[in-house]
Amino acid sequence: MSDEDPLEHAELTFLLGMAFQLTLTEFVRRVEAEGYGDLRPVHGFAFQVLRHGGATSTELAARLGVTKQAAGQIVAYLEERGYVRRVEHAGGGRRRLVVLTDRAHEHLAVAGRTMHGLERQIGEELGEEGLASLRGQLAELVRGLSGPELPPLRPVW
Amino acid sequence: MSDEDPLEHAELTFLLGMAFQLTLTEFVRRVEAEGYGDLRPVHGFAFQVLRHGGATSTELAARLGVTKQAAGQIVAYLEERGYVRRVEHAGGGRRRLVVLTDRAHEHLAVAGRTMHGLERQIGEELGEEGLASLRGQLAELVRGLSGPELPPLRPVW
DNA sequence: CAACCTGAGTAAAGTTGCTTGACTCGTCTG
DNA sequence: CAGACGAGTCAAGCAACTTTACTCAGGTTG
After folding, report:
1. pLDDT higher than threshold 60 for residue B3
2. Interface with A, mutate which of B5, B8, B23 (most A CBs under 10 A)
3. Which residues face A87 on adjacent strands?
């Protein structure tokens, strides 16, 4: 351990923050380069929630950890740009089911490939076992700090 | 690896995000419980920048990765609450040196103890070697994705 | 079966934490 | 001494939310 390396002495929380910020920023940069400059990370999370069968905007709100008004705004933004449609909901009432369009599914495919490529690149650097053990320890840390239910991933400060 | 565990199959970026959010949230919760509900994470980072000899607000801005106007607002907020003082700057000009008060140094001591306790608790869960290897891999990941200079830690989305 | 309650969705205004643009004021330089 | 430079400030704008206050569709109950 070199005394000059600030990373070795950094707080764990700081290391986690740096690692998350760098990977997410790199991911966003690559996805933007593919022509999706109109999507922010929260839209990717919304796509993950909606990808299998859709959801109402109130359900989306709960999963994203925001108010239903905020979710409504996100849906309106995505609808304007052709990423989602609002269709009738089998449950009736005022409910509307928000579903992904083909364009959103294309984005999911691109984002998936990008994420995969980034992870493979990190794997080359850490080695296969290094990456696997990193994933395992992160998972254990998350399990220890959260309850049985995973909390929604929110902006961090 | 259980097939039911969503964490084992999660993207690395997602794992990092969850781990960071959970540790930071827990840290903030504990520090707030010590009576520092008026401080956000960015103030802690500002304290780290200012802790040894202070800085001008323009220097602070560069270190936090925000505009000098934003840094000025942060300094004004901290000054109102008695965490920093603006003193004369040896360099002259319009420069003012922002320095921490005793109250801020007390907070740094509390935050340091809290951070240490949280890391020790995580260490119990992962084991000594687990924690050390997690730290090592995170440091390597950060080194790989950033240049020689570490970027400022910013809100993540 | 009418009155009520609930839950989804919307509308409007307020809040926060920044940014951009446009300055003022000391000092240094040619 | 004119002008440039850099620190700091003032004001307005903006994004992504929140809070408050509704409307509307449908089940529930006395």
Report:
1. no
2. B23
3. A97
Write down the architecture of domain A6-144 according to CATH. Orthogonal Bundle (1.10)
Contact (Cβ atoms closer than 8 angstroms) between residue B153 and residue A21: yes
Residue written as token pair 């020790």: B120
Residue of A105, A117, A122, A40 whose CA lies nearest to A77: A40
Residue B82 makes CB contacts below 8 A (sequence gap 6+) with B101, B103
The number of residues in chain A equals 157
- Report the top-level CATH class of B42-100: mainly alpha
Looking only at Cα atoms, what is the longest distance across chain B? Answer: 65
Give the whole-angstrom CA distance, residue A139 versus residue A61: 25
User: Is residue B1 pLDDT above 70, yes or no?
Assistant: no
Provide the residue ranges of all domains of chain A, joining segments of one domain with +. 6-144
Strand D contact nucleotides, protein CB < 7 Å:
6-12, 16-21, 23-27
